[in-house]
UniProtKB/TrEMBL annotation:
It comes from the Bacteria. Residues 1-20 form the signal peptide. InterPro entries: TPR-like_helical_dom_sf, TPR_rpt. Pfam families: TPR_19. TPR repeats lie at residues 93-126. The keyword Signal applies. The keyword Oxidoreductase does not apply. This is Tetratricopeptide repeat protein. SUPFAM superfamilies: TPR-like. Keywords: Signal, TPR repeat.
Length: 179
């Protein structure tokens, strides 16, 4: 009995610990000046220590991508899309993943899913896009199709990762996440 409880506790705690520790784009973004000081979709420039327009040309793609994630987490999906537009790597799977996410969260499910499919076509091992697609499928009541994405995540080495946990939880609860 005690082993069963310990195993159950560990199975719930491990994905959360991995999520909290995070790696790359799996953990929620840490709020920065982009969302605490900058207004109207401006992005904090760590070099100048000032807010800058995403299209200013003074921000590299990694800084812009960090701002995209932060905007999305804060529910500022329009700002996330505007910042994605400023990135040079328009056809990368990470841009397509977040373009799909923000588009879906703004209500255009079909366009969001199309971006997810493009990202998967570019990088079938992108576990985050598979998780987001699966969460969207859950929200549309297509749980079996979401389970296909969960199986793909696991088959591609994604057991005990945030994408696997988030999609598994969405399937069980019927709700997805906002990042």
């Amino acid at each position: 009995m005690i082993r069963t409880i310990a195993a159950a506790t560990l199975s719930l705690a491990l994905p959360m610990a991995l999520h909290a520790a995070g790696s790359g784009s799996d953990s929620p973004p840490t709020p920065t000046e982009t969302t605490s000081q900058c207004k109207n979709g401006l992005v904090w420039n760590p070099n100048t220590k000032k807010c800058a327009a995403p299209q200013s040309g003074s921000l590299d793609d990694d800084t812009l991508y960090g701002a995209v994630r932060e905007f999305a987490y804060a529910g500022q999906y329009r700002h996330a899309l505007d910042t994605l537009d400023a990135m040079s790597e328009q056809q990368s799977d990470r841009v397509l993943t977040y373009r799909g996410f923000a588009t879906r969260k703004l209500g255009d499910i079909d366009a969001g899913m199309a971006f997810y499919r493009e990202a998967i076509e570019l990088n079938p091992d992108n576990l985050l896009v598979r998780s987001y697609m699966g969460q969207a499928l859950v929200e549309q009541g297509e749980v079996e199709a979401a389970r296909v994405q969960l199986t793909e995540i696991r088959a591609r080495g994604g057991r005990s990762t945030w994408p696997e946990y988030a999609l598994r939880n969405a399937i069980e609860s019927g709700r997805g996440y906002s990042y």
